[in-house]
Write a structure and sequence with these properties.
mainly beta, 32 strands, about 5% helix, 4-stranded antiparallel β-sheet, about 45% strand
Length: about 425
């Protein structure tokens, strides 16, 4: 109960004090106390303390089995952070509503210590999230009844190799989920769905330290990755992990179907790409075009790309100079492919104005080259609707094109257009 004169207490810390369950909020004097029933399955409202004021509160809660129907099928799920800095998953579903879950709190699992990766598994239509934690690599999943659970993936194995940073993921054309990352020594580690399930029907994983088991025995160097990794798959099922070393060179660790081993390539040397900095982003088109995009020392967006039509060689392209577009921040990139227009897209923050800039190309522009759209202008984004940090762009299963980010206050913001990229954002 609230008379409307106080700030609502949305989240805080629960603890047991004697026969009371107490909820408090950090940096606040607000304190809710509820009496615990004798059997432990009932709570009765007791008091609300705010500073020196104590107010009686009413209400009763009883533990019971929920008869609510399962949540609608998700069409898009993304990672974000709530106002307390806790990792959450937002999902839009077929009822056109948005849902949010504090996955660590809801599952009872460990709190992520690194960036989360979120996807919807096409094999069962359920959202999943993976993250590093103090307890190891953790996989969170939403069951069909809406309950979130967690598993430490190393427990699937006799002894799973650790991933401590730079987590990345990809889903192959056959639907196999792969997780990649680095251990404390900078070695590349892979976890992947092995085709088996446990008695609960959850997909089981295998794991391998690719540096130790694949690269070292053949004298191949493990790239000295210094930042995040980008994992991507090809239409023929190839597995690729890309990242930058300390000098800004693009390195990939990769495997192709039919090959008995993994390989390492310095793509910057092959394509003669100048050093990049910050984040990179990678995406692949259905016509087998591979694009790895980063930012050079001038703030220009540069693509290192390959396609069968390019003669089988890696090439480079400068989107900023070819379009006379704005320079961008090197820590905000996100690239993605959209099917309705067969389009290639990279979104980033304008380094001068802070506007969200979408560099894009689709088959209708064959022969015309890339162009760009200022999404902040297109959406009329001002004030709290302006995105200020890293971006995430992707196409949802309902055909919508989406760009997500957070505003200066930490709220999650979505810019979207239905179908055609030339529509109204």
């Amino acid at each position: 109960w609230d008379d409307g004169s106080r700030d609502p207490l949305e989240r805080g810390e629960w603890r047991i004090e004697g026969d009371s369950l107490v909820l408090t909020r950090d940096a606040s004097a607000l304190r809710y106390a509820l009496r615990i029933g004798r059997g432990g399955d009932t709570l009765i409202g007791a008091s609300l303390t705010s500073g020196t004021s104590v107010t009686a509160i009413g209400g009763v809660a009883s533990r019971t089995v929920s008869n609510l129907p399962p949540p609608p099928t998700p069409v898009i799920s993304i990672p974000s952070v709530d106002s307390l800095g806790r990792p959450v998953v937002f999902s839009s579903r077929t009822d056109e509503a948005w849902y949010v879950a504090d996955i660590a709190a809801k599952s009872g699992g460990p709190t992520p210590t690194g960036e989360m990766r979120v996807w919807i598994d096409t094999k069962n239509g359920r959202p999943y999230a993976a993250a590093t934690s103090d307890a190891g690599l953790v996989l969170y999943s939403e069951l069909s009844n809406g309950v979130w659970t967690y598993r430490l993936l190393a427990n699937d194995l006799v002894s799973g190799p650790a991933i401590t940073r730079s987590l990345a993921f990809l889903v192959t054309p056959s639907g196999q989920v792969n997780l990649f990352g680095l251990n404390a020594s900078g070695e590349v580690v892979r976890y992947w769905q092995n085709g088996s399930t446990n008695p609960a029907g959850e997909y089981l994983y295998s794991a391998s330290n690719l540096s130790v088991n694949q690269l070292d025995p053949r004298g191949l160097p493990t790239p000295g990755y210094t930042g995040g990794l980008e994992a991507y798959t090809t239409p023929w099922g190839g597995l690729n992990v890309a990242g930058l070393d300390s000098t800004g060179r693009i390195w990939t660790v990769w495997w192709a179907p039919g090959q008995p081993r993994w390989f390492v390539s310095n793509l910057s040397a092959i394509a003669k790409t100048a050093p990049l900095s910050g984040d990179i982003t990678a995406f692949v088109s259905p016509w087998n075009g591979i694009n790895i995009v980063g930012v050079n020392s001038l703030g220009e967006m540069v693509s290192t790309w390959w396609s069968p039509g390019s003669g089988g060689t890696w090439k480079r392209a400068n989107f900023t100079s070819s379009t006379l577009g704005p320079t961008v921040s090197n820590a905000t990139l996100s690239g993605f492919y959209i099917s309705p227009t067969r389009g290639l897209n990279v979104v980033a923050i304008d380094s001068t104005t802070g506007d969200v800039i979408l560099y894009w190309w689709n088959v209708a522009r064959t022969g015309l080259g890339w162009t760009f759209t200022n999404l902040s202008t297109a959406t009329g984004a001002t004030g709290v609707s302006r995105i200020t940090g890293a971006l995430l762009g992707l196409e949802a299963s309902d055909g919508s094109v989406n760009v997500f980010g957070r505003n200066a206050g930490g709220a999650t913001i979505r810019y979207a257009v239905s179908g055609a990229i030339t529509g109204a954002w």
